[in-house]
UniProtKB/TrEMBL annotation:
The lineage of its organism: Bacteria, Pseudomonadati, Pseudomonadota, Alphaproteobacteria, Hyphomonadales. Keywords: 4Fe-4S, Carbohydrate metabolism, Gluconate utilization, Iron, Iron-sulfur, Lyase, Metal-binding. PANTHER family: D-XYLONATE DEHYDRATASE, PHOSPHOGLUCONATE DEHYDRATASE. GO terms for cellular component: cytosol. It comes from Hyphomonas beringensis. Its cofactor is [4Fe-4S] cluster. Binds 1 [4Fe-4S] cluster. This is Phosphogluconate dehydratase. Its EC number is 4.2.1.12. Residues 69-378 form the Dihydroxy-acid/6-phosphogluconate dehydratase N-terminal domain.
Length: 610
């Protein structure tokens, strides 16, 4: 048995100790809900009649007679999102598969699923982060009918999976399996797409050329193929144990994808409290699972959005994470994968090179993943296998011993870098994070005057006017959750990258977010406390010299400390009073949003311990 890395053990133990009271209260809550029989047996005859009225005769007979377990399906299907369009046929597949093993599957409810790729740089992005908590609440409504013995969660993209996880853990007495749809086939190579974006930002190509490049990149059903938040979600669900082994990156519309979908339904039927393998989600996921998730994130150069989502997800199970946990795990986790934006390859190339099975085995052998943590397919030590078809059924075999391409996926003994490339950035301006795995080492440290902006539009206007051809640190404030919902600022990457390519030293400091696909420009994001709540980022003025050192995690300002402390924070003025495009409906979300360091969540599970 591999010895665990002592630092990973130490971090896991400090999380466990920090979370002791809230975790215990959580476990008491979910254990009190464990059913003694089928969940629906608690209902009156009238209640049960309503729950079964729309079923096929065979399902209705079994539900009324209490013969088969009932599996609830929460679906994020819509046909605008390429990643979620494959889910249109999943309920039928899942019902048929469940019936084969004497179980019923019912769609319990649907949840919203918005696409950041559509709203990026526009007003709709201000609802994006909050959609995570809406999804959690919508899932809770679906499951609140309390007639289910297990749950299947259909979701892939950015906020959808974290929202579904939060709900799955708050209904943690139910076994839960996440059923992915997989990435679209590879299209235009990522470097060519990036080049088209930069040429457009410089005015060297027109919109027709840009649209052609984008359409050739995003061209079919499935997730976008770069390694942003959506595909980071899929990696997380696998290393945390919510997937069947190897389910993450099989393409939609293939026989193996359908076989994995069917297997998920049939596995869920085995995990209910009425069988011998009862595995409630809230007990399956513990401190080991959460640390495994962060290790996987660092080893693959995953999305910084999970510095927000993982604390919110963990809190739903009574587990308290800090930014320091992420930074300390990153420091001992080698980078084993280079997938765009950390390299030219996409997730299909990663999957073909050995994929999740190879990655998990390397991390297990290095003592970085805790193989004793549980997953829906067994202990995580079994997740170094990959699925294949045999006589139309899915089976598993050991993942390849060698990478198919060492430029994409490597052994832990020969990593791309010795750490995962995430830094905690701290100093007088606040606390944030920086992802440096895609930033060239010589670009990670700079000292330059600040140029302060109150919106991303203001920065883009200054760029278009030719006012930014110099060394500077862009300070984009009033982008936090209580200001405007903490939108991603990915549309700032092309102009800043253009300036960087011209030889200027540039960096971004913001209390907003960056896309999971942002990379080459150094940035300190999620700055907390945020500017709209009087955080020190609102005290920075044009010309203040910023020391940005992403190697040491230092974010300093060359202003006398007493003078800086005495400054008044700039006043936040809500943009159009946050009216229009539904933003006025999220007033209470902005008012109640927690700090970025705690996940920017509406929920305060740890306050009451329930």
């Amino acid at each position: 048995m591999t010895t665990m890395n002592p630092k990973i053990t130490e971090i896991t133990e400090r999380i466990r100790e920090r979370s002791r009271d809230s975790r215990q209260a959580y476990l008491e809550m979910i254990r009190s809900r464990r059913p003694k029989g089928f969940a629906r047996q608690r209902l009156t005859e009238s209640n049960l009649a309503h729950a079964t009225a729309g079923c096929a005769v065979i399902e209705k007979t079994q539900l009324l007679g209490a013969g088969w377990p009932n599996i609830g399906i929460i679906t994020a299907y819509n046909d605008m999102l390429s990643a979620h369009a494959p889910y249109e046929d999943y309920p039928r597949i899942l019902r048929e598969a469940a019936r084969e093993v004497n179980a019923v599957a019912q769609v319990a409810g649907g949840v919203p699923a918005m696409c950041d790729g559509v709203t990026q740089g526009f007003t709709g992005m201000e609802l994006s982060l909050f959609s995570r908590d809406v999804i959690a609440m919508a899932s809770a409504i679906g499951l609140s009918h309390d007639v289910f013995d297990a749950a299947l969660h259909l979701g892939v993209c950015d906020k959808i999976v974290p929202g579904l996880v939060i709900a799955a853990l708050r209904f943690g007495w139910l076994p839960s399996i996440f059923v992915p749809a997989g990435p679209m086939p590879s299209g235009l190579p990522n470097p060519e797409k990036q080049k088209a974006r930069q040429l457009f930002a410089e005015g060297k190509v027109g919109r027709d050329a840009l649209l052609k490049a984008e359409s050739e990149s995003y061209h079919a059903q499935g997730t976008c193929t770069f390694y942003g938040t959506a595909n980071s979600n899929q990696m997380l669900m696998e290393v945390m144990g919510f997937h069947l082994p190897g389910a993450a990156f099989t393409n939609p519309g293939t026989p193996l994808r359908e076989a994995l979908t069917r297997a998920a339904a049939q596995r869920a039927a085995k995990l209910t409290a009425q069988g011998d393998e009862y595995l409630p989600a809230g007990e399956m996921i513990d401190e080991r699972s959460v640390v495994n998730g962060i290790v996987g994130l660092m080893a693959t150069g995953g999305s910084t959005n999970h510095a927000l989502h993982l604390p919110a997800m963990a809190a739903a199970a009574g587990i308290i994470l800090t930014v320091e946990d992420f930074a300390d795990i990153s420091a001992v986790t080698p980078l084993l994968a280079r997938v765009y934006p950390n390299g030219p390859a996409d997730v299909n190339h990663f999957h073909a090179a050995g994929g999740m099975g190879f990655l998990v085995r390397e991390l297990l052998n290095a003592g970085l993943l805790d193989g004793s943590a549980m997953g829906v397919g067994g202990p995580i030590s079994k997740y170094c296998e990959e699925p294949f078809l045999k006589d139309g059924k899915v089976e598993w075999r050991p993942a390849p011993e060698e990478s198919g391409n060492a430029d994409i996926l490597r052994h832990a003994s020969d990593p791309f870098s010795k750490d995962g490339g995430l830094r905690m950035m701290a100093g007088p301006i606040g606390l944030g994070v920086s992802k440096v795995s895609a930033v060239q080492p010589e670009k990670r440290v700079l000292e330059a005057p600040a140029i302060v902006f109150d919106s991303q539009e203001a920065l883009k206007e200054a760029f278009d006017a030719g006012k930014l051809n110099r060394d500077f640190v862009a300070v984009v404030r009033f982008q936090g959750p209580s200001a405007n919902g903490m939108p991603e600022l990915h549309s700032l990457t092309p102009p800043l990258a253009v300036l960087q390519d011209k030889g200027f030293k540039v960096a971004l400091v913001t209390d907003g977010r960056m896309s999971g696909a942002s990379g080459k420009v150094p940035s300190a994001i999620h700055m907390s406390p945020e500017g709209a709540r009087g955080g020190p980022i609102a005290k920075v003025r044009d010309g203040d010299v910023i020391v940005f050192d992403a190697e040491k995690g230092v974010l300093d300002i060359k202003v006398d400390p007493e003078e800086f402390a005495a400054r008044d924070a700039a006043e936040y003025r809500p943009n159009e009073n946050n009216m229009g495009l539904g933003r006025e409906m999220f007033t209470f979300f902005r008012e109640l949003a927690g700090p970025a360091a705690a996940g920017a969540s509406q929920f305060r599970f740890w306050d009451k311990g329930d």
